[in-house]
Structures are given as C-alpha cells and as structure tokens.
Write a structure and sequence with these properties.
Blueprint (H helix, E strand, L loop, with lengths): L1 H58 L6 H15 L7 E9 L8 E9 L31 E12 L9 E10 L19 E3 L1
C-alpha cells in the first residue's frame, strides 16, 4: 500500500509540472501586458498633468514674461521625468474675447518642442484658435480670456508587444486667468526655450 501511495504522489508531482508548463506562458503574457499597459497609463497621466500645470502657472500671472514661460516649460518637463522630454511639445496660448459677434482670437502663443517631438509652431497672433475653444469658456463682449495649453507626446512602449508602434497623444487644457481678465505678454524678445508669436 505504501508503494502505491509513493507512486501516486510522484505521479501527481509530474501532473503539476505539466499543468504549470501549460499555464506559465499565459501568466507571463498577462503580467507583461499589465506592466506595459500600466506604464502607458502612467505616462498618459503625466501628459494630462503637464498641460494643466503649464496653463495654471501662466493663469496665476497678471502679465506673462519670457521668464514665466521658461518656468512653465521647465515645470512641465519636470513632470515627465524620468521619461524622455525630447518627445514632448508644449504650446501655451492666450485666447481673448473677440467682442460681440466675433469669435475669440489669439493674443499670443509660445511653443517649445523637444528634438524628437512632433513639430509644433505657436498659433498665429490675431487668428482664430483651431480647434475652436469650447463653448461657454469666453463670453462675447465681456473682455475675458482663457489660457490654453496643448501638450503632444510621442509614446513608444518599452515592450512594444501590446502597444505597437508610436502613439501620439495630445491633451488640451483651458483655464481662466485668476488676477486679470486677460494675461498680456509683457516682455520681448521671445523666451529662451521656445518660439513665440505676440
């Protein structure tokens, strides 16, 4: 009887090894997929935080200077750490009331792009924002404005298994100035780290 139990026990160990060999690849794929997708989700969250931070920093000012924009660009790049900041492009734009019967227009716009980022240019002064500012943010004829920040990031997964190729993520964020109706650009020349139209 004892010999039968020993043989049965050894037989069960072999069965467990075979089952484990079947299940292991599935577990590894699930684990790697979880790591890849959670990393991508974390970077996407950083892109959203970059756009809100840049807009918020400028919205706190009574007037924007080159140093203010340099500070906003530097702060947004710090949020992205340890990811590659050369893949990010940031545009900060002041969109002002165009008056009754007119669409909002761009007062000034500054862009900063990393060496490997999507090529971006600041929006044209006096032009209409494209895409249009969401309805209700600027009430025509009231002299208000919004600070609009757009961040574009080229993300490539480190595994490149589930998320293949390069994903280009864009996030827009709008906020109203806190201290004034419109944040003018009060300094020239352009910022050291960006290209501006004012």
């Amino acid at each position: 009887m004892r010999d039968r139990l020993v043989r049965f026990w050894h037989g069960m160990e072999g069965l467990a090894a075979v089952e484990f060999a079947f299940v292991l690849p599935i577990i590894l794929i699930m684990l790697l997929g979880l790591v890849e997708l959670s990393t991508a989700s974390g970077v996407r969250t950083q892109v959203v935080n970059m756009s809100s931070t840049a807009a918020d920093l400028i919205a706190q000012k009574a007037s924007a200077t080159g140093a203010d924009l340099d500070g906003a660009f530097a702060a947004t790049k710090a949020i992205l750490y340890p990811n590659d900041t050369k893949l990010a492009a940031i545009t900060i734009t002041s969109v002002i009331d165009g008056g009754v019967g007119n669409t909002p227009r761009i007062a000034w716009s500054c862009s900063m792009a990393g060496a490997n980022a999507v090529t971006t240019q600041p929006f044209t002064k006096g032009g209409n924002p494209n895409p249009a500012i969401p309805a209700g943010l600027i009430e025509a004829g009231k002299g208000g404005s919004v600070v609009w920040t757009r961040v574009t990031y080229k993300y490539t997964s480190f595994l490149n298994y589930f998320l293949r190729g390069t994903q280009t993520w864009t996030n827009d964020f709008y906020t109203k100035p806190r201290r004034v109706l419109q944040v003018p650009y009060a300094s020239s020349p352009a910022t050291a780290s960006g290209t501006c139209n004012f």
